[in-house]
Amino acid sequence: MKSNSAIVWFRNDLRLHDNEALTEAAKHAEKIIPIYVFDEREMFGKTSFGFKRTEKFRAKFIIEAVQNLRENFAKFDIPLIVRMGKPEEIIPEIARQEKTSWVYCNRERTTEELYVQDTLETNLWAIGQEVRYSRGKMLYYTADLPFPVTHCPDTFSTFRKEVERFTPIREPLPIPDFLLNKTSDTVEEGEMPSLESFGHEEVENLGDYILLGGEDAGKEELKYYLFDSKLVSTYKKTRNGLLGRDYSSKLSAYLSIGCLSPKYIYQQIKAYEAEHGANESTYWLFFELLWRDFFRLMGKKHENRIFQLGGTKKSPDANLGLDMATFEKWASGTTGVPFVDANMRELNSTGFMSNRGRQNVASFLIHDLKLNWLLGAEYMESLLIDYDPCSNYGNWNYIAGVGSDPREKRHFNVVIQSKKYDPSGEFIKRWIPELADISSKYIHRPDTMEQSSEGDVDQKSSYPEPMMINEDWC
Prior knowledge:
Number of helices: 18
Strand content: 5-15%
């Protein structure tokens, strides 16, 4: 029987569909008060190396997602309360004012998020209220896995074998029927912040497409990729692309802050397969969701180690290079290595980089420039529109050879990769206008042009010489 009222604290679950915390609150409370708090530490804080915790691209995406959540609640005549500050202080004050019984939220597992929810729990206990936790981030429920989290395999291939065949994926929860629920009208809704509120200038769209934040936009993006364009049927062939909207699903940002549920994406993949047939590519999109769960479980199992230099392996020989002048060239896309620079300039201009690009720029920073991988991980934490702690740091662990990989390191030959994935140099020319007129023969190594005996005109005078040359480049 329903009684009392409850706060639903939205975190990285900015959606109405498949939201366990919202469903449980609607089931047990007469009134719900949905709240989102822009955490001042996330929006204004800095990483250990001094990068902004949340750069303008992700800030814009989050603002749009929260605004869309507010609009979707308004359809049920329920206001979404928005605040800026510290959730563990703001939420107990509203709970005290409204005499609620519970705060429902989806549980987070990484250190800073744990501190916030633990402090919130303590502050609520002081006024006789409690937190009720739910799950919201993963494709699988941990209770359904064939092992406890502490025994999760440390390699993806073993994890996949143990989980994929035998563990069911639950149906996503529908949007709860809470049309008759009314929230208190004594709490001010609060104004939505702007980019300027967080000290950012307006974002200029320099990419080839615009990712709009929010549950509605995420569902549209998924529908486009699956049913409108049927691009999912060629995903495995195109996923290493570099230019445009269509080479990959572009769903990672929606997953990162929970505009889309992974179970909902899986459900839609299965619906697509039922209508149009399954193939290796439709499976591969599911495969990416498996990787995401795996990194999440590594974060739960190894906790802070994913953020430390030695990684989950506690490697004693992890690279310690901290040459900031060298790092700045990498970060600004001025290394003189076109494939690296083009990817970094795309990131700096849009907040996005392809998976292929991420692997190559990370490998270059770690294995060619010999720099501390945490520099790169924190820089991407700042800029990536789809930043997720476990996925970002898990992938950096992976490339650095200190994480969940049987191989010691993953060192990519960036010139060979450039020739393979950008053979004509179209991507390089898109982001490095200084090289726009260079022939495809030299676009991957413009530093060799002056040695040419074929009369090529050197038009790269404003592009730097490579800061280093690997003898394996060709």
